[in-house]
């Protein structure tokens, strides 16, 4: 399954998510042809149950899709659509075709089938047709809602550091397309966790591509009469980069594998920490090895490095997730530490507090 | 060489007394200047501002009085520069002329060159760029190919420079080019020229950077006819002159203040009640900054005493770069404030801008590996 | 080589089921063992404990049944080892025999050697050390000078080994020595021998380390007469055999659990209400540990599949060392608990001990520079 | 002045604080000959006012003494005696000859000229004849007291990671030798600040010696046919070490220079942070470059590295002092930041809170 998914998405992205397309989409252009091809592949519906129009694929197998999105810096909310349809499915709502995104940051109240409030940091919010989020988060009955973006009273446009849309949408008495109670097995932070999960795989993919680009450059570029990759100082940096990329890769894969049915919050948190730290180290080394050329818009390095800088912060920084792990670990004390680590798939973090600027 | 070279040095009272004056000036002239502009640090261009500084005597102030300078010592210039940088003032127009080209012409130029070029520099009206790197030369400047050959009218210039900061705004370039055959000694046969960028045969093409800005340029020379007096200094001694020039380039406050605006927006965004992590990191960065400034002042004292502290200057540059590049990294860990190209708070926008610019800081004046090589050589290891 | 080599792998159920058993055993046998002793990790020596483990079948368990082993797969051994290390059990007596010498003899030894050496190893009674480094050889093992020359009775051994862990307690050494002239190919002409350390002509001198402990030794060979069957494997192929052996040595849990006891005392000393800095650092280290373990398990799966993941193993080793060495550094930043050689809390004593031992962790099985060189080679850079 | 001080102490320590002496004193032996020579030099009294038996030397000039103590890993409380006599002088009490130490950590109450309570982490407490500390710290009238160690009811012996005595002394109704109110110009944390000041200079000195030892070793030791110092990876590490040692050196000197009369708490805090971080980096690089030989007791590297590990934690870790600077900076906000940094000599930290294990 994974092999077919991977080869399919790779073929599709190789053709339609070229560096030129990615660059042209920064700032808000929409890659209609790419999205059409993705919809046709059926991937947007993959995680939903078969009974609700999906293919009931688990996250373990979807890992390769999210990683490929990162490797190609794909300027589309495919990961977001998969997660949105997965949550709709959990709530018993029919899977959505079309451009679907989600909001983990929501301050939304639901009354009589209509919502008031705002959604923040919505990926491709300006382009999405529908959005999944959770209303009445702090009540006894948090509710999964599906909204049509056209019913938003207003939008506030934002771009992350890679020029990807991260918009806010404001609703005032807008009718929901569908709603259903959040199942008791899911926490209200399920979309935050899902977002962290997606970004960890995208970071792993982007790091992989960036490592290949950087070691290739080091082999070709000569200075002082030999390839710069022949200098010990450069070799040592590239080795560190490879280690970090490997750590990111396995941390992200572990998070998907252990979340196949329910989100494994400890492993997801660890994945976001490991990938965010690897993103920082990898982007720095890639730029250092490339020198000036890597700083130009025409060279594709920045398509990856700028996304690494964006994604490491989205759905919780390395600090936020570290602190949540740290709180859980300290709750268990030194005596319980090893058992916690080795039994981690069953461990869940307690509810978060989010700092904001 | 030894770390005992770093001796604590303070700014003399007369230089320190300039601080109040320049702060008042900046308050008047940059009061409403937004943080997103200040974040450009010495990349911000504003010719009118440069002329105002020139009128106050703060451009080329270390140059002799007869050319419009103030014969000020290194500490007076240090105070002016660090205040401008700390405020994020747009100094890029005159920056290179003030910092490198003016001192170079004063030191190696002829009397006629001094009289011609230095007064407009001191007025903040004459802008220079430095033509060093070429395609494929990178850190290995001995491999440059652009050449000037003697002809009837002086010199005929051909070739190409790249990564030339501000070439699109500058009137002049100080170019390092080949004037002789490539020698056994890799660094011989090079000379420096003052190139009037309005001459025929010159094409300047800005290079767009990853953040969408245009600071770097490609500059092409196609049979550019230079006058005989375009040569500055001694024919064939260009490398030695450049090396002397680089000593100025490695230890000033511009080596560690590039992200000061982000540090300021970060501190304000954190507010008066930092948590233990925020307090630790802000305090740690502040301790480093204080120490870096003391190191930089120590090198300034050595320069003022006529010494050539290449080793010590490289220490400041390398530590300074690490510090500057660390600030966006730390900032994104202290607040859940995602960097924003569009929308978001001023802090989020400054964070986005400097996260993207930070990798370029270690391209300026020697890569990390080369700086550390200089230090290792100073320790007798190579 | 590619990072895609790291594929998430889980411990098979039958191996995982050993965990409960070994935990219960450790609870019974190490209940009162103090943190300061646990902190010695795999440096702690207790022959009685090793024999108890042997009796449970947990020493040499990967060896064939006919020699006393359990023919267990790599994951079963992994579970046992990580539980022993996480508990800080004193495993040093049998550690090298279990981890390196047993597998080496099983792989390269004769049937007679297997029958003679493996059963007592599996009983936890036979202890080995590894003689590799020599004075001035350092990381450059091709430069070793200790030699064995053929004579009437077998081989005559002369020379000196140094930094030999546990030589003072072991019955046997697996020694890498020169058996031929130094060749053009630097790594030829070496062979491995099983040296009975009770033979005449052998002097063992412990080296006191900076913390006052004695783990390393100098071992002198003065005309030591070895039997013909002391040679293990093929004459002249010692280097290849050692290289194969090193693959076992680079990616196990011993590569990142050396400071686990300090992490535990630190967590307990912080208590249930970490501040933002403490929470961040404890969580960050825990995320790293989880990731390292997943990397290590991935390499184990590759070994189980008969692959030779030298590149991947070096990644685990280098990251693991950095992690282990970081723990005392982080610990001293999170609490105002000064490390104490004498007096102070148990945490302060564990901190003192592991602060001092940590530099030695990167001496084991290849320095940082060499490991990174292996990785760079795997990437095609050299 | 500095030159004479430095050459005098260096001569004395070269002769009498040899590596053999230092090692033999670890664990508690007392170098009587060394201490006798130091007392004879008059340095213990240097910081006290002339009117009270001292030489009224300012801290700017005493820097070289403290740095030399670090360079030689000197196993004596000379820095402690200087600080103790300085504080006695501030309080108008006669300077003390003999072995004088101090306690920054004190929980001591004074009544009718006698004290109850404990002193912690007292350098060479088991050897000292007299101790300076502050009693009634949390009262309106904190008092400088001079105690005879022989009046202690009991002692709890401790050694830091370098085997230097750091003892606790417990007093119960012990008569003080002298006492006087702490001058209003001094904070109750003056001994903590003074301790941090001393240790920053000792770290700077030890790093200097360790850098020399390490670059010397790298030049002499050959591997793979050339000196290890010829390998680029080693060169880059040694360059980082040199940078850190230089930073430590100037940070410590700044703290002494700006504290010539009153303690400049911001600069002292920055010095402790900079030197503690340099200590960590330098010790790690020194051990890494030396390899196994540096791990042996017979090679003198550890005499320095173990002191770096001890001193970086004493009188406040890098975290503690960073947090105090951070609190001060955040109090001033971003707008006031640059003025704070450039006017630092006048800035004082507010009173500390100390975490303990």
From TrEMBL, chains A, D:
<dbReference type="Pfam" id="PF00441">
    <property type="entry name" value="Acyl-CoA_dh_1"/>
</dbReference>
<comment type="similarity">
    <text>Belongs to the acyl-CoA dehydrogenase family.</text>
</comment>
<dbReference type="GO" id="GO:0003995">
    <property type="term" value="F:acyl-CoA dehydrogenase activity"/>
</dbReference>
<keyword id="KW-0285">Flavoprotein</keyword>
<feature type="domain" description="Acyl-CoA dehydrogenase/oxidase N-terminal">
    <location>
        <begin position="26"/>
        <end position="96"/>
    </location>
</feature>
<dbReference type="InterPro" id="IPR037069">
    <property type="entry name" value="AcylCoA_DH/ox_N_sf"/>
</dbReference>
<dbReference type="Pfam" id="PF02771">
    <property type="entry name" value="Acyl-CoA_dh_N"/>
</dbReference>
<dbReference type="GO" id="GO:0050660">
    <property type="term" value="F:flavin adenine dinucleotide binding"/>
</dbReference>
<keyword id="KW-0274">FAD</keyword>
<dbReference type="InterPro" id="IPR009100">
    <property type="entry name" value="AcylCoA_DH/oxidase_NM_dom_sf"/>
</dbReference>
<dbReference type="InterPro" id="IPR013786">
    <property type="entry name" value="AcylCoA_DH/ox_N"/>
</dbReference>
<keyword id="KW-0560">Oxidoreductase</keyword>
<protein>
    <submittedName>
        <fullName>Acyl-CoA dehydrogenase</fullName>
    </submittedName>
</protein>
<dbReference type="InterPro" id="IPR009075">
    <property type="entry name" value="AcylCo_DH/oxidase_C"/>
</dbReference>
<feature type="domain" description="Acyl-CoA dehydrogenase/oxidase C-terminal">
    <location>
        <begin position="198"/>
        <end position="307"/>
    </location>
</feature>
<dbReference type="InterPro" id="IPR036250">
    <property type="entry name" value="AcylCo_DH-like_C"/>
</dbReference>
From TrEMBL, chains B, C:
<feature type="domain" description="Acyl-CoA oxidase/dehydrogenase middle">
    <location>
        <begin position="129"/>
        <end position="224"/>
    </location>
</feature>
<keyword id="KW-0274">FAD</keyword>
<dbReference type="GO" id="GO:0050660">
    <property type="term" value="F:flavin adenine dinucleotide binding"/>
</dbReference>
<dbReference type="GO" id="GO:0005886">
    <property type="term" value="C:plasma membrane"/>
</dbReference>
<dbReference type="GO" id="GO:0003995">
    <property type="term" value="F:acyl-CoA dehydrogenase activity"/>
</dbReference>
<dbReference type="InterPro" id="IPR046373">
    <property type="entry name" value="Acyl-CoA_Oxase/DH_mid-dom_sf"/>
</dbReference>
<dbReference type="InterPro" id="IPR006091">
    <property type="entry name" value="Acyl-CoA_Oxase/DH_mid-dom"/>
</dbReference>
<keyword id="KW-0285">Flavoprotein</keyword>
<dbReference type="Pfam" id="PF02771">
    <property type="entry name" value="Acyl-CoA_dh_N"/>
</dbReference>
<keyword id="KW-0560">Oxidoreductase</keyword>
<dbReference type="Pfam" id="PF02770">
    <property type="entry name" value="Acyl-CoA_dh_M"/>
</dbReference>
<dbReference type="InterPro" id="IPR013786">
    <property type="entry name" value="AcylCoA_DH/ox_N"/>
</dbReference>
<dbReference type="InterPro" id="IPR009100">
    <property type="entry name" value="AcylCoA_DH/oxidase_NM_dom_sf"/>
</dbReference>
<feature type="domain" description="Acyl-CoA dehydrogenase/oxidase N-terminal">
    <location>
        <begin position="14"/>
        <end position="125"/>
    </location>
</feature>
<dbReference type="InterPro" id="IPR006089">
    <property type="entry name" value="Acyl-CoA_DH_CS"/>
</dbReference>
<protein>
    <submittedName>
        <fullName>Acyl-CoA dehydrogenase</fullName>
    </submittedName>
</protein>
<dbReference type="InterPro" id="IPR037069">
    <property type="entry name" value="AcylCoA_DH/ox_N_sf"/>
</dbReference>
<dbReference type="InterPro" id="IPR052161">
    <property type="entry name" value="Mycobact_Acyl-CoA_DH"/>
</dbReference>
